[in-house]
Design goal:
The complex is a heterodimer of chains A (280) and B (266). With 280 residues, chain A is mainly α. Chain A is 74% helix and 0% strand. Chain A has one domain (76-273): Orthogonal Bundle (MetI-like fold). In chain B, helix 6 packs across helix 7. The chains are: A mainly alpha (280), B alpha/beta (266).
């Protein structure tokens, strides 16, 4: 039957049009544009900051001048203490993101596989979402002691919840025809999961990942604020309590830069993971 | 001598209706399709056409009766059977080529054959030039071609189509219907085609089965003796009209019965 390919009927219908040029060609220019815009905004922001300090729109105790923060930034970036703090916070975020994300993914899959359990636990999971988990730090300290694991555990939970909910919503919303297709092809459970269900739910899972990284960061820094004896969050609180506004601002800027970098990385990953889908 | 294609023997399907009475979707259907024949089922909505098709596909167990394909029984999902769905079943994360190769991948066809056969099927359904496109860039009709190519690439001996054009606009339906007929005349699969569109059924097939409203029975079998190389212009011939009138006279009562039953239930 393969050798009998005849010339297909050529129709002038809109259903056999010529290939449309890919949207991809437009992307570098929009990427460049957004990079230029980002840089421009950054310059404007610095200018505003400098101007505000120079014209005394605010007191140096509120926001120290850029001219003081910049040398402090350079100095701090060269210090071992900073890299110790940054390394510790980075490690906490990474573990919370990977561990919480993986755990959330598994929970989401489990809820989908066992809808009854999912329906029982969903309201608690959703309301847990709204609880400021930092409140549980005394419990954590009692359980694991005053060390970075109390930070990691709470940040993991914060990262895991949106991941679990998104995975679950994504899987429950699968078009039934995909599962019917999988069944008609005789897919085994592993193929159904990895070849059909998870890729189909990928837009939700990736959105879950983006939330997870944000929550891991918030969780880690906020927990360090209250419990830790090292880390970027701890350092900010320490400097603020010792009225060292300049150095505190340096650390605040570093945390800001970190969250921007993580968001950027995730958006790059998102684009790669969701290639070809509508609107991308 | 004609070979057996699809044999349906004394088939019944009941659904446990929860606390209500069980619903009999299909009742006592016994029909045969010779290999390489194209048969359509028409019937009012809710008559169990899709249920019948699901059972033939091995996706659903019958309450009683059996299905044989090429003389061997169907016990579950089966690689001799290719399904084309009503809904868009292209996978949005795969290019046309990867979508067409997907069925073969699951069935464990060798990589090299996958590429070659995928390209042949893409050519067959007229999607040359769109090999690297994602479904989001294709129209509904083109996506349905991708799904058809995927099914054909599995080289099934039986093709089951469940209202494959229902989600498309009228012009696309007519064009795609002609394409399916052209492809069938080349590949000669045994086809069972479900539709609720009378003229589509007559236009496409060699035989039309009329199904009753619940419980679904085959209440009439009409041979379509129109020329094999017919095109859409056959719609205006007296022979076509006669067929249409005959099917409609049977179908009308059933459609009415179904309409009344559905509206009193609601």
């Amino acid at each position: 039957m393969e050798s009998t390919v005849a010339a297909p009927v050529k129709t002038e219908s809109p259903h056999t049009p010529t290939p449309v040029p890919g949207r991809r060609r437009k992307r570098p220019s929009t990427g460049l544009l957004s990079a230029v815009c980002t840089f421009g905004l950054l310059v404007l922001g610095c200018l505003f900051w400098h101007l505000g300090s120079a014209l005394a729109w605010w007191s140096p105790a509120t926001i120290p001048p850029l001219t003081e923060v910049t040398p402090a930034l350079v100095e701090i970036l060269g210090s071992g203490e900073f890299w110790g703090d940054a390394g510790r916070t980075g490690f906490e975020i990474a573990i919370a993101f990977v561990g919480g994300g993986a755990f959330g993914l598994l929970v989401g899959i489990g809820f989908w596989k066992a809808p009854t359990i999912g329906r029982v636990f969903e309201p608690y999971l959703v309301s847990f979402y709204a609880v400021p988990l930092v409140l549980f730090y005394p419990v954590m300290i009692v359980i694991v002691g005053i060390n970075q694991w109390s930070v990691i555990i709470l940040a993991s939970i914060m990262a895991g919840i949106p991941m679990a909910l998104n995975t679950w919503v994504g899987l429950s919303g699968l078009p039934p025809v995909y599962l019917k297709l999988a069944r008609s092809l005789g897919c085994n459970p592993r193929q159904t999961m990895f070849e059909v269900a998870l890729p189909a739910a990928a837009p939700f899972i990736v959105a879950g990942l983006r939330l997870a990284v944000v929550y891991a960061l918030i969780g880690a820094v906020a927990m360090e604020f209250v419990t830790a004896s090292a880390g970027l969050g701890f350092r900010i609180r320490y400097l603020y309590e010792s009225f060292d506004t300049v150095e505190m601002f340096v650390y605040v800027l570093v945390v800001l830069a970190m969250s921007l970098a993580l968001t950027f990385l995730l958006s790059v990953a998102e684009r790669a993971l969701l290639r070809g889908r509508a609107g991308r | 001598m004609s070979q057996p294609g699809i044999q349906i023997s004394d088939l019944s399907v009941e659904f446990a209706g929860g606390d209500a009475d069980p619903v009999t979707a299909v009742s006592g259907v016994s029909q045969e399709i010779d290999a390489h024949r194209f048969v359509s089922i028409v019937g009012p909505s809710g008559c169990g056409k899709s249920t019948l098709l699901n059972v033939v596909a091995g996706l659903q167990q019958p309450t009683a009766g059996s299905i044989m394909i090429d003389g061997k029984p169907v016990t579950g999902p089966d690689r001799r059977i290719g399904l084309v769905f009503q809904e868009d079943s292209t996978l949005p994360w795969k290019t046309t080529t990867d979508n067409v190769a997907f069925g073969m991948r699951i069935l464990g066809v060798a990589k090299r054959d996958q590429q070659r056969r995928a390209q042949e099927m893409i050519d067959l359904v007229g999607l040359q030039g769109f090999e690297q496109s994602y479904p989001a860039m294709l129209s509904g009709g083109m996506r349905q071609r991708v799904a058809l190519a995927r099914t054909l690439a599995q080289q099934p001996s039986v093709l089951l189509m469940d209202e494959p054009f229902a989600a498309l606009d009228q012009q696309t339906r007519i064009l795609l219907g002609a394409e399916v007929r052209r492809i069938w005349r080349q590949t000669k699969q045994t086809v069972l085609f479900v539709t609720h569109d009378l003229s589509e059924a007559i236009l496409m097939s060699q035989q039309v089965w009329v199904m009753s409203y619940r419980p679904g029975r085959i209440i009439d079998v009409i041979d379509v003796d129109l020329p094999d190389d017919r095109d859409a212009s056959v719609v205006s011939t007296p022979a076509f009209n006669e067929l249409q009138n005959r099917i409609w006279s049977t179908l009308q009562q059933e459609a009415m019965r179904g309409f009344v039953a559905e509206s009193t239930a609601a």
